[in-house]
Each structure stands twice: as C-alpha cells, then as structure tokens.
Amino acid sequence: MAIDRAGLAEFLRNRRAALQPADVGLPLGTRRRTDGLRREEVALLVGMSTDYYSRLEQQRGPHPSEQMLAALARALHLSLDERDHLFRLAGHNAPGRKSIPDHVGPGMMRIVDRLADTPAMVVNSAGETLLQTAPAVALVGDETHFTGLRRSIAYRWFTDPVTRQRFPSDDHDHHAKAHTARLRAAVTREGPKSHAAEVADALLAESAQFTELWSRHDVATSLSDRRKRLLHPELGLIEVWCQTLLDPDGSQGLLVYTATPGSESHQKLAMLGAVGPSLVE
C-alpha cells in the first residue's frame, strides 16, 4: 500500500489545528500565531523530532512506522476510525480491532493529559501498560517498552523475578493471587480466544504457581488490593492507594496512584520528578 503524502499531510494539519494546548495537558503559553497545537508541541507529545514531524506535514517526510503512527494517534486524540484512516494514509494496513485494543481513546487521553503531575497509567485487561505519565515511569519504571507476552505484568510476575523486586516480599503472595484473579475474570468475560486467554495459556505451560492459583477459580481481589507498597530504588518504601477508572466495556483501566496527604509517602511521590525514572524493570 503506497503512502498518500498529500492526504497524510492534510489530515495531520487538520487534526493538529483541532486541538488546543489545554486539550493535551500543555500550558497555553504566549504569542500563539497558529490555531491549535504547534508542530513542536505535537512532536513533543509523540516523542519525535520537530523536523521529522514537520516533514510529514510538508509531504516530504519518511515512511512512518506503525509504532510512530500509533504514537501520533494518541497524541492527536484520534478515534479508532481516525486512527485506521491515519494508518492507511501512511501506507499501512489498519491495525486489527482486537478484543483488547491497544488504542487509547480520546476520552481516556483527555483524563491522562490532566494528570501529568500524577502517577497514572492506562492498562488493558491482559495487564499490558499502554500509556504512562512521567511520574508513573519514575515510580514503577517504563512498562510500555516490553514486547510479546512480556507486555503483560501478569506474565512478567510469574516468569521474571526482577518484576517482584518492586514490592516487599511479604506482599508477593497477595500480588500473585491478584494478578491471577484479574486474568481469570478477563478470560471469562472475553472468551477463550482473547488475548487474556493467550497470556493465561502461556502461564499454565510455564508457571507451577500460576497453575495452582488458576485452579482455584478466584475472580475477585480484596479491598486491600487498592493499597500497595512499592519499593523505589532511590526513595525506598512508598505506600500508595491505587484507584482504577474503567472504560465502559472494561477493556481498559486508568490506574491513579496517590498517597495520604502529609505522610512520608506523600512527600516521596512529590519527589519523583527530581529522581527521574525508576531503574527497576
């Protein structure tokens, strides 16, 4: 499929002009001469150079990868139909509409943009992190760079000992039960051909602990699962509350981490911007 450079450039300019800085969590600034976002603001949101993005709008850019297009779709708050259109204009087949889509919709994106100073992340029901704020990366590390089955925190929990280093050893059994219960509920809801089922089948073949917990058919976790203790490599123990906002279809959830005001953990969360990304992966 050939790239439609003129159509791609026009579509990007149109969608950029339709957004204001406040729509994507950016300050308004001064002396704005353009309607909507500036090119450099879109490039910042996507994680590409301004020159790269500018060339796309000038019909002389390179052939963008699927990963870059997915990032553009998130930055421009595109709907699924608009995302598919973007992919086709850029010479790619539109991504399949999986039962657990990787695409973060405009509504969820608007909420995340307003949580720029708060540890927050969007995950799907297979336990894959789709989007993180900078404080969330500083708190738990970059969870969006994994590939294959390792994208799922449930899979990593049972197959990669390093993943458990973020949590006190006394809490490991609880987290193992919670990951299993959430995955069991997702498989029941989405069916044996779902992505959640693919993760569960892989774990049944690889982890004796997961297999034993899976056989219990637990599908719910206690209220205490909202309270988590995290081990940060520089700040040490941080106790947080994890509140979850679910999409109407339950396929994605927004996790927001907070701490009790005035507590030591609350002070540590405020320091995340200074210490930078967590190196525990």
TrEMBL record:
Pfam families: HTH_31 (PF13560), MLTR_LBD (PF17765)
SUPFAM superfamilies per UniProt: lambda repressor-like DNA-binding domains
Molecular functions per Gene Ontology: DNA binding
Lineage, uppermost ranks: Bacteria, Bacillati, Actinomycetota, Actinomycetes, Mycobacteriales
HTH cro/C1-type domain residues: 36-83
Name of this chain's protein: HTH cro/C1-type domain-containing protein
Native organism: Gordonia insulae
InterPro entries: Cro/C1-type_HTH, Lambda_DNA-bd_dom_sf, MLTR_LBD
Top-rank taxon: Bacteria
